[in-house]
Design brief:
Order of helices and strands: HEEEEEHHHHHHHHH
Shape: extended
Distance between the termini: 15 Å
Number of helices: 10
Helix content: 55-70%
Low-confidence stretches: 1-17, 70-101
Strand content: 5-15%
Strand order of the largest sheet: 4-3-2-1-5
Largest sheet: 5 strands, antiparallel
Length: about 220
């Protein structure tokens, strides 16, 4: 029943957002829910991850030119067309072509790869992987020490992170990564990271408590 309560709460939050298909000037298509937008940028939730796209990256939203308005259809499309055509013509792809030789096997621009790795460290992803891996090994070693040692020898956290790099590259721009690093590397950003687990835990507990108060008969059925 708790799973049901959490599912209902999740649907309530998601349903308030506007679903949309965002076509980018580089040819990519992003499908998600619009979280917020202004004249300069658009924040979209894609599979639970909030991503920011800037005006010069956006070709259109559901076929309508990006205006920064929450009502795209109400905005005149004609005045926007010349402005949107210019960023698309900027040789963003051709300017990055000379860097291909400098990329490693991941195919990611070296500067962006460095930013991704820094964000992974600043956000605590690497340390979380290490901690979880060590915890898993400790649990396995209790019953199967040989198996735990085999896993320790074969599995490397850095190799897992290498697999994550294309995912970050695909979902975040260089500007996104710089902004993330600036925020999460700050004292207030680090406070948020360290507080999130407890916030989530207490929020879930309080939400379940609320639902149990609204449906006391469910709690009684579980106790019988």
């Amino acid at each position: 029943m708790r799973v049901f309560f959490l599912f209902v709460l999740t649907i309530a939050f998601i349903s308030s957002a506007q679903a949309a298909t965002i076509n980018l000037t580089d040819g990519r298509q992003v499908q998600g829910t619009i979280v917020s937008q202004d004249s300069k940028s658009l924040q979209v939730n894609v599979d639970g991850v909030n991503m920011t796209y800037y005006a010069d990256e956006i070709k259109d939203i559901d076929g309508q030119p990006f205006t920064g308005s929450t009502d795209q259809a109400a905005q005149p499309a004609a005045p926007q067309a010349p402005e949107q055509a210019a960023p698309a013509a900027v040789p963003t792809e051709t300017t990055s072509a000379p860097q291909v030789a400098a990329t490693d096997e991941s195919g990611i621009d070296p500067e962006k790869k460095a930013l991704i790795l820094k964000f992974i460290d600043v956000f605590g992803t690497r340390q979380a992987l290490i901690n979880n891996f060590q915890l898993m090994l400790q649990q396995i070693a209790k019953d199967k020490p040989d198996e735990a040692e085999k896993i320790r020898e074969r599995v490397k956290v850095d190799e897992i992170i290498d697999r994550l790099l294309p995912i970050y590259d695909r979902n975040f721009t260089t500007d996104d990564l710089r902004a993330f690093i600036a925020f999460y590397g700050s004292p207030v950003g680090q406070k948020l990271i360290s507080t999130i687990p407890e916030l989530m835990k207490e929020s879930v507990q309080e939400s379940v408590k609320y639902m149990e108060e609204k449906f006391p008969e469910v709690k009684q059925d579980q106790g019988s």
